[in-house]
Design a protein that fits this description.
2 copies of one chain form a homodimer. By secondary structure, chain A is an alpha/beta fold. Chain A has helices spanning 33-42, 88-102, 114-123, 133-153, 158-161, 183-197, 214-231, 247-259, 274-282, 297-305, 322-334, 349-359, 406-410; strands at 58-66, 69-76, 81-86, 169-175, 201-205, 236-240, 264-266, 288-290, 311-312, 338-339, 367-368, 378-379, 391-393, 403-404, 413-414. In chain A, the strands form 3 sheets. In chain A, strands 4, 5, 6, 7, 8, 9, 10, 11 and 13 form a 9-stranded mixed sheet that branches. Chain A starts with 32 loop residues before the first helix and ends with a strand. At the A-B interface, helix 2, helix 4, helix 8, helix 9 and helix 10 of A face helix 2, helix 4, helix 8, helix 9 and helix 10 of B.
């Protein structure tokens, strides 16, 4: 494969350019049937190109800033526009990567080849070496701007392009961001989150983020029974350890969670401690959730092949966008588990979650909701973009289904790198 | 742990904040003795703080550009300076990450706490989510500037600070960057590389980089015998597949390499295809080299624990600098294998390799050499910085052992991010 972005590239099959080659078992390696199925899903497109009749050539993709807000704008040679709002926390750190290493793979190409272009972006310019949040978030933002463009040009919401809409509303849960506060205070905070949104589920944090100590363990042990007792037996209660534990403590805390019928236990061990996560999962009956830090398709497949997850949680940005994340959801479906994506707050992360949920059958019952806390100036005719009785309406207008304030967009300042 | 960079942080033990907690086997998880040893090494400092008598407070770290060149300058409150030349290919893409997410963890701190500051940088600001080349190369450049500062202030080459110098010269090999050219042409190219440097070893490329096809396989099969025949039985011949193969082809090509007594076989499978790499390694007798794309300490330990490498190759930049890479070398030593780091070309990568080699006992016989192809304006009194008879003298002056042209440094333009 040529390394220059300008050349016409033939995309290798996603995740593996020699799909099917490992048929023989004579070399001592036999991929599981599940892994074979995952590979097939990885190699099968998500975007239904046939739903966009004409070619849409991408003329330009640029990044703009308007105050604290950032957005990417993809413009076709016909003058059609797609917009993706981006979180300043990421854009301020990755704009050179987007401008130098990602956009060149898309400009001048047919937007309908989106998935091939993403694969070429990964394989070209040695970008595979850059695999990680800083690369994939950039790819995700470019992808979402192009999906918005494709939906607008073809007059359909993006869920229609990504397999077809299967629901009009999505149930949400709120996650508390707090850690280290007293158990009683945290329970009050959780009650407040439920009351303001009508959410039927909440999530709270355990451990001390990527470590634990005696204070965090004391809080864990007070909080677990107190949350169940206060919210009641019918409440759906999720927990997130953010990689705090080793195997022994992960299992110890997990058994307490089981005692109080906790609905899932997210990231008991540090994200890259695979063996430890496998051991904790095998030592417990509580549903285990995880996957938000995964950036490698192969490693995600390995983790799912171990059977350790009951709920798999690709981050829609860190994992590189909606089409890649939907493939993870389809792999999850093939083994009978749920996919509840992780979403980063700020900007329009909640909207990308809603559009993901619009077309994925095996989402869990409640999706994390962080809302439009940045007050990005968008509206939708079909949705208030706010939860009511714990549900949000998924916008059904073309593309992402929201309209930006035209003045806000017009005043965006073009971002350039050195 | 507080997430703000400004706070005084207590560093967790490297790689695992609850070192030793997995003692019990009653939870069904028993780390191997090798893994336990690796964890101990990960938690043991490399930098010998006691060799720098006074505290060296870092006043500022900045990035500068002079034409195509970039460098980082670390300045102490006493006005001492350390300089790290950085590759524009990286710096142009990661300068905001360095400025926003890395440098704040070092300014105002004692440079002697370097390793704790690196660990805090990873754990702080949620930077662990950013693990990957874009993050770790920035950490590496900051680390190298600080090591230069520490060495200059204490009047010793950095090898003395990182365990003590064990050699004054290092044997080098040249790697051909070519792929896709005819076998005969490639062999001539390899001969040229040997002749110009006196190198006793060369490396050539196999496959088609992260994939293979019939043309690349044809070339592989012509090249493998031809290189051995032309360079002779005494030549040390390395090969690099850059992740081109699946298991079946990886073993097939490996057996041909064995037939022609090839000295190592690097990255047969894509870097994140761990199971496949294990299978290829177990199916062959030829020494297997790899690890240049690894960014996770836990995953590196897992790979080494599988016993698949004969030569482990952390990239001194991608893996986050010299102290982290030396820990990998020490883990390798604990299981009796060699560590031959991968180095990125351009800037002064060859110098960082030489300083690494100065203090690591278990380097392989030949280290990759890419030279000062960017013509960074530096000199050393103790080394020509060029190979002679296949060896380069490792600079022995304080710090990195080279002096930059003062005018070049003075004319550097300060780089800022948005």
């Amino acid at each position: 494969m040529k390394k220059t972005a300008g050349a016409t590239l033939i995309a290798p099959l996603a995740a593996c350019s020699y799909e099917g080659a490992d048929k023989s078992t004579s070399n001592g390696y036999t991929p599981s049937d599940r892994l074979k199925q995952f590979r097939k899903i990885a190699a099968s497109p998500v975007l239904q190109k046939e739903k966009v009749k004409q070619s849409i050539i991408i003329e330009s993709i640029n990044i703009y800033q308007n105050g604290k807000h950032f957005f990417l704008k993809a413009v076709s040679t016909d003058g059609a526009v797609g917009i993706c709002s981006g979180n300043g926390k990421y854009i301020k750190n990755i704009y050179p990567i987007i401008l130098n290493r990602i956009i060149p793979h898309f400009e001048g190409k047919d937007a309908r080849d989106l998935e091939m272009l993403i694969e070429n972006t990964y394989m070209g310019m040695l970008n595979y070496k850059w695999q990680g949040l800083a690369f994939w978030v950039g790819v995700a933002y470019v992808e979402i701007a192009i999906l918005d463009l494709l939906g607008r040009v073809s007059s359909q919401p993006i869920g229609e392009l990504l397999g077809g809409r299967v629901r009009e509303q999505v149930g949400i849960y709120y996650a508390s961001g707090k850690r280290g506060n007293p158990a009683e205070e945290e329970v009050e905070h959780l009650q407040g989150l439920v009351e303001k949104s009508g959410a039927k589920a909440v999530k709270y944090r355990l451990g001390a983020r990527m470590r634990y100590d005696s204070a965090s363990t004391k809080r864990d042990k007070e909080l677990i029974p107190l949350v169940r007792k206060t919210l009641g037996d019918d409440a759906t209660i999720y927990t997130d350890a953010n990689g705090s534990y080793d195997v022994a403590m992960g299992i110890h805390i997990g058994k307490i969670l089981e005692e109080y019928a906790t609905d899932f236990y997210e990231e008991p061990c540090p994200f890259d401690h695979y063996e430890e996560t496998v051991a904790v999962s095998k030592g417990l009956n509580i549903p285990i959730a995880g996957g938000e830090e995964e950036v490698s398709t192969r490693q995600f497949m390995w983790l799912m092949d171990q059977g350790i997850y009951d709920i798999v949680q690709p981050d829609l940005l860190f994992y590189g966008g909606l089409t890649r994340s939907i493939k993870i959801a389809r792999m999850a479906q093939s083994i009978g588990i749920k996919c509840t994506p992780h979403i980063s707050g700020k900007a329009l992360g909640f909207l990308y979650m809603a559009q993901f949920a619009s077309c994925v059958r095996n989402i869990g019952p409640y999706q994390e909701f962080k809302g439009n806390s940045d007050k990005v100036p968008v509206e939708s005719l079909s949705s208030s973009l706010q939860p009511q009785n714990g549900l949000i309406d998924i916008p059904k207008e073309p593309g992402l289904g929201v309209e930006f304030d035209p003045e806000f967009i017009a005043k965006g300042k073009l971002i350039r790198s050195i």
